[in-house]
Design goal:
This protein is of the alpha/beta class. The protein is 36% helix and 21% strand. Strands 3-4-5-6-9-10-11-12-13-14 form a ten-stranded mixed beta sheet. The protein has a two-stranded parallel sheet with strand order 1-2. The relative contact order is 0.12. The structure holds S-adenosyl-L-homocysteine.
Length: 344
Amino acid sequence: MAKADIKSMTLAELQQFLAEQGEPKFRAKQLFSWLHEKQVDTFAEMTNLSQKLRQSLSEQAKIGGVEMVERFVSKEDGTRKYLFALENGSIIESVLMRYEYGNTVCVSTQAGCRMGCRFCASTLDGVERSLTAAEMLAQVYTIQKDLGAHISGVVLMGSGEPLDNYDQVLRFLHLINDENGQNMGQRHITLSTCGLVEKMYALSEENLQITLAVSLHAPNDAIRKQIMPVAKAYPMEQLLRTCADYVAHTKRRITFEYAMMQGINDSDACARELAERLQGMLCHVNLIPMNPVKEREYTKSSKERVARFAHILQQHGIETTVRRRLGSDIDAACGQLRRRYMQK
Ligand code: SAH
């Protein structure tokens, strides 16, 4: 029988799991604290549990984790990029970003991705598998340990489409937010999606305080369909209506991500059209100078183009920022380390 994935369990589920073995309720809290507060990787370290219980736990349960295979540290700004192996040998990437206001980890939710965005490296070979909540948590816990400093924020912007792994991602959000564990504030968490409409409605019903980021990357369907296959399933009008409904329901401002690709989506006309479509919505546009991917034809817009695009949006009253590039000396951006490693 497969071992129980106890690190993906809520406190209530752990109580149930332990009750089935005749253990009192308070044991679950102890176990939860070992897993999510002290963040140990072995049962042997759980010294306030009896030998007998530790023994039976190690027979019936596993502590899902990730194994570090490589680490790159930027000398410029302390950014760290990690390659982790999962239990089945799949490789994922995670990134540590150091900001003045705290340390943030960019977490992968799937090994690979099946959304097929034409400018993205993570989707080139499709999806291998979705990650468990434990494996997402382990990225944060392992990096926190390696860094020796507290991780205060998470962005679900690594490989994978978070809403294509909805249940485990929701579990992850609740577990990392739990006050008996990492206790990360929901407002320090951003979930990025290419725009899976039904799942966005489901997410809005969860009443979370997280930030939703939507990968828009285009001002209209004609351009969006060229670069994002998901646009064929959900036209922009439907997507933007969903975003407006999300804002109305959650009262949370939405972020639109817009990767600037030279000659594709970066003209003045694109900026004006985008501004018009976002008019009146509680939102914020984050312009990302596109990271060139060697297998892809797209190149990044010039600095001047990005600045001009931002200026037009701002003139139209759309709050806009340009994403700063971190760790450029350990480049190999967005999913390319993983590919490089797998092709070795
Ligand atoms: N599947 C989610 C999370 C993916 S990664 C989503 O689509 O939002 C986070 C962001 O990086 C997305 O906005 C994605 O479109 C963007 N991205 C992917 N490849 C990129 C590249 N080569 N350059 C710049 N941004 C990229």
